[in-house]
Design brief:
Layout lengths: L11 H10 L3 E7 L2 E7 L2 E5 L2 E8 L4 H4 L5 E12 L7 H4 L5 E16 L2 H16 L13 H8 L2 E16 L6 H12 L4 H10 L4
Antiparallel strand pairs: 1-2, 1-5, 3-4, 4-7, 5-6, 6-7
Length: 207
Amino acid sequence: MYVPPYFAEDDPDAIAAMIEAARLGVLVTHGEGGLYATHLPFLLTSRQPMRLLGHVARANPHREHAGDGEALVILSGPEAYVSPNWYPSKSIDGKQVPTWNYEAVHLYGTLRWFDDPRGLLDVVTRLSERHEAGRPRPWSVADAPADYVERLLRGIVGVELSVTRVEAKRKLGQNKPEADRLGVIEGLAMSPDPRDRLVADAMKPKV
């Protein structure tokens, strides 16, 4: 990923927060048949060393297509279109064009596939707990009949990425004058689209 220095995020805590905030990732591998990609949620299970955990349907042929080389997980954060009309400097010389502000993390590493029932139950339980947290009546794996869960576990394969390198990018107008940044924050904050407002929040100075 192209990451100019002013967009690079290298703080481990900030990167972990970006990973944990991402709801869905893309696992990309390259084998004999070429590139193959699967969308799936991931859990950050360890920071040192960094590991991601997830699962795919057993019917998904990704395991066979993955090959033995490096794998990539792409996690996207808030993103929004930025209009030139939000830059006060546009009124001076007109030298502004549209852009896109966003956050993203690319994680590279080696894959381990697993299908032991205990490991699979652990990953689906932890994923459910994460995404049910905060709901009035959180659903639990234990809410479903044990024999039903056991049958469904036979239909998935677990995947773990042991991360060897990380690229984290927060393209939030850091290369723009403060007045232009504030203009974009104001424009995005007034948008009816909640995704735009998330980017506005991400752009606000941290106090």
